[in-house]
Amino acid sequence: MQVTGSVRSIPGFSLLAILCLVILYAPLLVVMVYSFNDSLSITIWGGFSLRWYEQIFFGLEAEKFQKAAWNSITIAFMAAVIATTIAFSAAIGVVRTSPFKGKNLNISLLSLPIMVPEIVTAVATLIFFSMISFKLGYTSILVAHIVFCIPFAYLPISARMQSIEKVYEEAAMDLYANRKQIFRSILLPLMIPGIISGFLLAFIISLDDFIITSFVKGAGVETLPTAIFGSIKQGIKPDIMALSTLLLLVSTIFVTISYFLSRADLKNRLN
Amino acid sequence: MEPVYHQKRAFDPLRIWLLLPSWVVIGVFLLVPVGLMLLISFMTKEFRGGVIWEFSLAAYDQFLFDRGLFGDEPPTIQWTYIIIFLRSIVQAAIATTFCLIIGFPTAYFIATRDSQNRTFWIFLVTVPYWVNLLVRTVSLKFLIRDNGPINEFLLSSGLLSEPLGLINTNIAVQLGLFYSYLPFMVLPIYASVERFNFTYSEAAADLYADKWSTLRRIVLPNVAPGIAAGCILVFIPSLGAFIAPDLLGGAKNFMIGSLIEEQFKGNAGNWPFGAAASMILLTMVLIALMLYTRQQAKGEVR
Prior knowledge:
The complex is a heterodimer of chains A (271) and B (302). Chain A has helices at residues 13-34, 51-58, 62-95, 103-115, 118-131, 138-163, 167-174, 179-208, 211-216, 224-232, 238-270. In chain A, 75% of the residues lie in helices and 0% in strands. Chain A is mainly alpha-helical. Chain A folds into 2 domains: 15-49, no CATH class; 63-270, MetI-like (MetI-like fold, Orthogonal Bundle), CATH 1.10.3720. In chain A, helix 3 runs antiparallel to helix 8. With 302 residues, chain B is mainly alpha-helical. Chain B is built from 12 helices and 4 strands. Chain B is globular, with a radius of gyration of 25 Å. The model of chain B has no long low-confidence stretch (mean pLDDT 87). The interface between A and B is large, with 99 and 101 residues.
């Protein structure tokens, strides 16, 4: 007998959910729209134009932005590759070995870079580099990025690793496969989706970082976020909105890829 | 042939080598630096940014006490920094509350859709999280500025006679923090509502419990761990946030993040003081995390 209706649908919750999406997307959509605005005033619509995009590619500051973009992308790529490798190796050590003392401590250590507030990591890393007299610049940014990318690569990798049952490798051992063969023919192929999403996460996280980068970058080296931050100190200009829109598209494409990868993977496993 | 029972697993002998890279990287480039930071917080400041290696409690003393311009007057409580810390806690708490008010219904709504719709909604909620935080905050600033689209609209439609004046206020900072970390609230609550077994609530409905009391007395206690996780995930980064307070708050609405940043920029900085403020922030975060894990552990025992 259904007197009161199911608790599954609560009146008003659907409206709040839609409101939530509006809040999340409204600022981004507005900036996207205005980045195509021809008018120099950034709030009055003056017709459709690509002039701000032209400006970031060919304008006065084009060189600065291109350099910053190059730094951002190369750092994100290298940091993500290295962090994913370290996380993958650690995930095998934690998940694919028999239970050991200190397992929880290891897991905590791997998530430590997420626990410590970014500003604290930034201060500590700056102090560290200046104490060992390491010149601040490209390399110091890369090192700092590798550290905070590790937990983001580790999460999807270890989740995937846990979902692979140990009977696979036991069966392989019964058939006298050696460790290298188990790794190459069983673990690695099964782990590919986890490794890809770990890499994508780490890549976006590195691309996203502002505060740690701004502490350890030294003078003269910029990444996209620090360059944008420098520019908006003098007010939000339309070219910054064009640049923001491009960054926004890059992130969205990455997330969409990872969404479809995991969905395809889920379907494969269900079949 | 006898079946082979594996006491050991294939990768057991390699365990140390597999874990070593993560120990080295996190140890050398995070644990050692935090240790150094603790050390620096007990050193004497050098005026052009940097430290003199002489033990001193000056950084912590400066945080709490005011001893006059020359340091020879009887100490009185120095409220400046305490207020900045308290303000940060309040701002983070308000942002967390708003995230909960919007995030819980959203997560609940998503978790009660069919599975196809669920993944799509979750996808929609996660996309903004992956957009650069700086870009998102700049977008928000653009939207709420005095001559931004919202105010233009309100003014031209005659609903308002002067702009809302949101920018550079506490409210703008709260809005910024709320906007930055809203997805963090939705995801863990979603996960716990999705796991919730709705037959319990149907049992309650059979016993003539109405919707609201079923929600409050059956569903809420079961999804409490998810709510706690969401709150901690929003509260902690809000506490040490730098971008939102800096871009939206202006000088009057200083939070811990900006206070710390100031100590390391240019020549006016005070490294030991910045290190001490960072240590205090880190301690607060660790205490919050400890309380959280203890609470979760208690929940599991029950």
